[in-house]
Amino acid sequence: MSLINVKDIRKVYRVDEEKIVALGRINLRIEQGEICCILGTSGSGKSTLLNIMAGLEKPTKGSVFIAGKNVTQFTEKQWALFRQRNIGFVFQSYNLMPTQTAIENVAMPLMFKGINKRTRTKEAVHMLKAVGLGSRMMHRPTQMSGGQQQRVGIARAFVAKPKIVFADEPTGNLDSKTSRGVMEIMVRMAKIHHETLIIVTHDVNIAKYADRIINLHDGSIISDEPNQSIVSLDEEKKEPASAAVNE
Amino acid sequence: MKWKDMIGMSLSNLFKRKVRTLLTVAGVIIGTCAIVVMVSFGIGINESMNTMMEGMGDLTIVQINNYNQTPESTPLDDDMIAKIEAIPHVVAVTPVYTLDWNAVTINSGKYAYQGQIYGVNMKSLADFGYTVQEGSLPGDDFEENMILFGWSALYNFYNTKKTSNNMIFAQPDATGTIPDPYVDPMKDELELVINEMQGNLDEGTSTTTASKKQKPIELKCIGVMGDDWSRNPPPGYAVFMDVSFAKKLQEQYNKINDVDTTNTKSSYDNVSVKAESVEYVAEVEEAIQALGFADTYSMESIRKPLEQQMSTIQMILGGLGAISLLVAALGITNTMIMSIYERTREIGVMKVLGCVVGNIRTMFLVEAGTIGFMGGILGLAFSYGISFAINSFAAAGNSISLGGIVGVGVTGSNVSIIPVWLAFGALVFATMIGLISGFYPANRAVKISALTAIKQE
């Protein structure tokens, strides 16, 4: 059984009298541990697909099954509890809490889960070290560069050991060099725990990191194939702190 | 999510916007102050009104008047008194039995007293608020021949050896001192004799002399009472003795003088009933009236309308305060809505990260409630300060003419009183106001879509 099963998803937006078809009958299966890239230009419907899979939007038709559960029928509360346990999220604009330190930001999903402060701080420290921010744990987002902020974002997405991590244009606000670093960290973290990573991007260079590339155009999948020119993670660049992730 | 974490996040959110939080709290402080100080004025006025009324007479005493006794009416006798004593919340009952004028004479050597003598329930005098300025009130060792003298009554002793200039008056002499009366009842021996009437009363030839048929009775005065016109019977100009003793003396007088008693009442004219406290007076009075005595009187008839007037004043004062707290409530709502606008994205992100909506609502309510609570605490502190300042100012002899506003003389007691219930109530009320004000913003926060986290500015 696939981890994610997208069945006959259709999404139509209504703008005044006009109907805009964002997604037309999408069928998709994603397996546990896959690093999957949804590639498409602006307006291709890639963000809508991600939003529907993550439960941020409801489809007009069709259903999404995650681990056998029909999540399209979830109530808001069910979604919240489901996200606590199964889903991590990396945002384009990082979305860190501006008034909180890196540790507090990373620990936040654990706090929502009701984990006590001592345990979640320990976990957060562990994650921050894993993303190479061991020296900036008490810094606030405003005291960090974009790349550093996004690494905090990644640590936050993976801290609760979710089954799936969604990344929405994770490098959209970063330069190409920083982007590479961020992508490598993200992919490595997903691989370590055999977690499913779904990256939405318009950037072909980012897509190279994925095992599988799904090409979306005008709300339809035009190609879905394994990545031929996969970028292998450079073993020499592996940061010493990342060893801690291996437990 | 743990309560501790929700409260922690709420507080840190408040702390991060210090100025705005302080201004909003200031609104609640002013509102709480307004209510507490206004209501404390109301209570102060009420209290001074009660003090004033206590000066007019004991608030907890019900008088039963029974002057218009007919053979058909219910007798107000000892059996009835026992019934009245059995009414719930009755502390003490005393009949007021007036010994016939001239029935007896109290002698002390050559001096004689022929004045007012009341028969009362001597042991209940303390309950009725009587005090002595010398000696003591009857205690457990009370004996029948023990009496209390009114201070002014002592000046009614006259010198029997003289026909003129035979009295001392309780008026200051040339040196400004009030002369002592002839008799010091606490030291001098007192003797009571039953009088016998000779001659014809109608012809104006009657004289009274001590009867030889009855031996003089030795009296023991155990105390001297001062003047106090707020009590019935007033103690100053009379002698108090036990009612059973007084009735016995009256019987002996009747027997000696062949007074026909077949038609005389066995009822008391007047009975005083002491209720447990002010709040039971109305209840006790009703119960007495139900026993068949319509003519009752208590301070309740004055106190009640006054109290109603006072509560109207209190409501007006409290209402004035409530308006400012209402404005403060709007301030809280406004602040919370502003804060939601600022934090829309933050709330969206929290939802995406798995925060349950109920927790978001709770956090906003805690924030609003905290504003109310802090405002309440500080407002209360300020209120105590203001109250203290006003009271000291008033005590220093400055006339704060609250009495002028409400038509009641305010003297002697505090102008502003903050009882515990008011302090506690104000705190709860301020917190409630905070929570209620936060309710709408909290629900708005809950409705923010998780999608806002994704959207790019």
UniProtKB/TrEMBL annotation, chain A:
Keyword Transport belongs to the record: yes
Any GO molecular function: ATP binding
Record-annotated ABC transporter domain positions: 4-243
InterPro entries reported in the protein's UniProt record: AAA+_ATPase, ABC_transporter-like_ATP-bd, ABC_transporter-like_CS, ABC_transpr_LolD-like, MacB-like_ATP-bd, P-loop_NTPase
Lineage: Bacteria, Bacillati, Bacillota, Clostridia, Eubacteriales
CDD domains, per the entry: ABC_MJ0796_LolCDE_FtsE
Residues of the signal peptide: none
Record-given protein name: ABC transporter ATP-binding protein
Superkingdom classification of source: Bacteria
Keywords: ATP-binding, Nucleotide-binding, Transport
Source species: Anaeromassilibacillus senegalensis
From TrEMBL, chain B:
Residue span(s) of domain ABC3 transporter permease C-terminal: 320-449
Residues spanning the membrane: 21-43, 315-341, 362-382, 388-408, 420-440
Location of the protein in the cell: Cell membrane
UniProt key word Isomerase: no
Transmembrane listed as a keyword: yes
Membrane topology: Multi-pass membrane protein
InterPro entries: ABC3_permease_C, MacB_PCD, Macrolide_Exporter_MacB
Keywords assigned by UniProt, alphabetized: Cell membrane, Membrane, Transmembrane, Transmembrane helix
Domain MacB-like periplasmic core per the UniProt entry, residue ranges: 21-290
Entry similarity comment: Belongs to the ABC-4 integral membrane protein family.
Name by which UniProt lists this protein: ABC transporter permease
Species of the source: Anaeromassilibacillus senegalensis
Lineage: Bacteria, Bacillati, Bacillota, Clostridia, Eubacteriales
